[in-house]
Amino acid sequence: MGLISGILMGMIFGISLMAGWRHMMRYRSTKRIAKAADIKVLGSLSRDDLKKICGDNFPEWISFPVYEQVKWLNKQLSKLWPSVAEAASAVIKESVEPLLEEYRPPGITSLKFSKLTLGTVAPKIEGIRVQSLKKGQIIMDIDFRWGGDPSIILGVEAALVASIPIQLKDLQVFTVIRVIFQLAEEIPCISAVVVALLAEPKPRIDYTLKAVGGSLTAIPGLSDMIDDTVDSIVTDMLQWPHRIVVPIGGTPVDTSELELKPEGKLTVTVVKANDLKNMEMIGKSDPYVAVHIRPLFKVKTKVVDNNLNPVWNQTFELIVEDRETQALTVEVYDQDIGQDKRLGIAKFRLIDLEPETPKEVTLNLLSSLDTLKVKDKKDRGSCTIKLLYHRFSKEEQLAALEEEKRILEERKRLKEAGVIGSTMDAVGSGVGMVGTGIGAGVGLVGSGVVGGVGLVGSGLGAVGSGLSKAGKFMGRTITGHSSKRSGSSTPVNSIQENGGAKPL
Amino acid sequence: MGFISTVLGFCGFGVGISAGLVIGYYLFIYFQPSDVKDPEIRPLVEQDSETLQRMLPEIPLWIKNPDYDRVDWLNKFLEYMWPHLDKAICATAKNIAKPIIEEQIPKYKIDAVEFETLTLGSLPPTFQGMKVYVTEEKELIMEPLIKWAGNPNVTIAVKAFGLKATVQVVDLQVFALPRITLKPLVPSFPCFANIYVSLMDKPHVDFGLKLVGADLMSIPGLYRFVQELIKDQVANMYLWPKTLQVPILDPAKAFKRPVGVLHVKVVRAMKLKKKDLLGASDPYVKLKLTEDKLPSRKTTVKHKNLNPEWNEEFDIVVKDPETQALELRVYDWEQVGRHDKMGLNVIPLKELTPEEPKTFTLDLLKNMDLNDAQNEKSRGQLVVELTYKPFKDDEIPTTFVESKEVQKAPESTPDGGGVLVVIIHEAQDVEGKHHTNPYVRVLFRGEEKKTKHVKKNRDPRWEEEFSFMLDEPPTNDKLHVEVHSSSSSRIGLLHPKESLGYVDINLSDVVNNKRINERYHLIDSKNGKIQVELQWRTK
């Protein structure tokens, strides 16, 4: 009797013990899960949520802008700036000087930075926005503002004139940098980084040029030439849709998806121009037209002598990479002894074009595209062009890519042989380097910030590797740059080749 | 009878309890699902006031405190990246654990240990606020509040003697407030040499540990015990002021500090070319290390000699023996006008073995371009003897090691005395009426020292160090620090000099504290400030 009741009681006790345990398990588990859910919800609060939590005691210092403010990052950046400035100026000097050498026009024998310091004013990050528009990609937009006081002096040695140091003063950069991270499933989880400047709002890069111990007016048009070239290089190399793709991590990755690729073909027929301005003292202008989508691929018509209403009827084909944002630039020049004079310029946005439908447009010529710089309101005539946009199929795209590569190789060869002076067209090539210098500078600062972000983002253990990656990233940026131009057979280059080399 | 029945009853209870536990286990626990589900997350707007009440303690710090910054963009970034990070981390963990397990299991007669599941779950860690501290020192300090309430699922299956047992970790929650300090700041990327991490609070840790399906952590009392144990263990290691140091850069390399001395003996030159119209050349040699900002060293001029013998010795400080090279240039001295180049050559320092003298006989070249035809021409030869002596470890100047301790004064310091070191870091908002080319004058006991001029800058940075040798502590003395501006143009007769403000610093504090690094408001200046570091070094 005792045995049975003992067994029974024992069993009941045991089972209830287990039941109690399970109850505790459930209780603790739901508590933990509820807490996890709470933290998740509170991790991404919106204004309405906060209103609901706080009621009338809504904290006044809180706002929810699209671009989130990063005061802490700015504080850190200004503290870190002296070190960054010193490190970056060495890196810029090392990486940009070979570029300067390469982009040196024939008239100039030597081109070097005689001085390069980034000044004492640190850049500010006005805000950061993170979004993911495509799976496996994170887009980070950084509102970047730098009204710095760098001291950049370019030593220009021309064959005819002695050394002219040109100083770049009061450099100001206001732009939104878009950084796209391509995610991967291996540490460091980022296989490539794409850096570009957003086209909207338009990047603003201001500076004043000063010839040290002399006057810029000694060489007429130099200042305008520099401005134009800086602008075209920024728009052609850095401004969206153009971009710099930097593969990260040891394993080679296919970055061709990220690269800008030929998307279609634009057939341009330059028909005629009317009422051009006469720039010649004797007789009339000798006009010709140069059209381009990207300044690197500029084509010219033949020259019509002594005519203010010339007819050309010449047809060209240009490659289009991104119809949404790119534009066709039409420039009319007057051929002259020495520097050709520009009679007018006009722009046509490709988005206004229907694929496969021919269109004829008459563009009014302006003296400059920058409306602030237009000095007179005089009519500069008009230019008539016929346009046809053709979207590429897959095969055509590949062929176009090959062709583009071939043209650049050819030009490089010619340049090495000394036939042409620069990979850029002769117009304004002499001052290309200024823009490159700035571009690289921006890139460096951008990546510095990215490095910092990576540091915070990854766990403590990954901090070290993240940093060394940041360091490597820097290195890669530079190798990427130089190999793009030198055409050496580094791995970076091969990646860029299969993705479509985009030199400038 | 009663006794036997009681004994039997106890025995029965014993048997029954084991049976009951087994039955209970199978009834209630064995069939519990062992997988981890994503928690159901409802938008906050839908939740009732009771849940809101429960949430209040978890409100992020940036809402409560205005000095914490919101870093939701970072949270978003992490959220997008998390699935990839999860896979990457788990794969790495598995790869690391595998060889260790394989090495260990034969010792314990276990057949296999393997991860049945390994995932960090769908919830990423979140930053609940970020605070940075600004100090006068060369360091960056930030304090993020990290909360990770995740739903990871780590199941380890152990097989032995044909049986299988599983250990499962679920619902890991870690809340921590680390302080991350980056220092010292160095002028090469990534711009800091070390990361120091320490915890400002004991971290909160919570998790479920299921042994064969039953959660041990839910046994009353055990959870608290384990939690306290973990907290104390972690706190022992990393709770402030204890820190975890992660070296990133070797500060010696980053700063390019001297690592050795190059001993150069310029012996002689042979068959130099005649450059002067009348008589032979007057040669001398200039020596310089590449990437060195120091002025070159020169030998004496040997007049009218095409085979001069100098036998002169020089010591040059080396910063990086791997990349630096010694440049030797032979010039022809002239009474008037520019000295002519007679030829040059370069010796990379990596060709030298430390502590071993090596003699070089160099052909002088026109330039360093190997393909230049002009180099074919003979320009004579130069004989030099080089010895590279690296510093011993204890000889390396250790100023850059961020030692909290103030350095020792040199041996020659008199007893009771010491060295007063003044480091002028930077100034802010200094402005002159006519020009702002600031420099600093430091006056102490009639002795005056000056920094370099910084041209046209309201926020100049000098980073210059001065020292004064003293016989006794300067307890009753004052240090006069004055910011001046001098006209940059040579014709600045109208306003040649201008004072931008001054400050008098009492030195008794320095003697007591050994080191003071502070920002002082300037007198006679609108808004100007100057950062001065003072050290009192004794033997």
UniProtKB/TrEMBL annotation, chain A:
InterPro entries: C2_dom, C2_domain_sf, SMP_LBD, Synaptotagmin_plant, Synaptotagmin_SMP. It is found in: Membrane. Its main location: membrane. The keyword Transmembrane helix applies. Pfam families: C2, SMP_LBD. Residues 479-497 have a biased composition (Polar residues). Residues 247-363 form the C2 domain. One of its GO terms (biological process) is lipid transport. The chain crosses the membrane at residues 6-25. Keywords: Calcium, Coiled coil, Lipid transport, Lipid-binding, Membrane, Metal-binding, Repeat, Transmembrane, Transmembrane helix, Transport. Residues 391-418 form a coiled coil. Residues 66-249 form the SMP-LTD domain. GO terms for molecular function: lipid binding; metal ion binding. GO terms for cellular component: endoplasmic reticulum; membrane. It comes from the Eukaryota. It is a single-pass membrane protein. Residues 477-504 are annotated as: Disordered. Belongs to the synaptotagmin family. This is C2 calcium-dependent membrane targeting.
TrEMBL record, chain B:
Residues 240-362, 402-520 form the C2 domain. Residues 67-249 form the SMP-LTD domain. Keywords: Calcium, Lipid transport, Lipid-binding, Membrane, Metal-binding, Repeat, Transmembrane, Transmembrane helix, Transport. SUPFAM superfamilies: C2 domain (Calcium/lipid-binding domain, CaLB). GO terms for biological process: lipid transport. It is a single-pass membrane protein. One of its GO terms (molecular function) is metal ion binding. It is found in: Membrane. The keyword Ribosomal protein does not apply. The chain crosses the membrane at residues 7-31. It holds the Pfam family C2. It comes from the Eukaryota. Gene3D superfamilies: C2 domain. Its cofactor is Ca(2+). One of its GO terms (cellular component) is membrane. Belongs to the synaptotagmin family. This is C2 calcium-dependent membrane targeting. It comes from Corchorus olitorius.
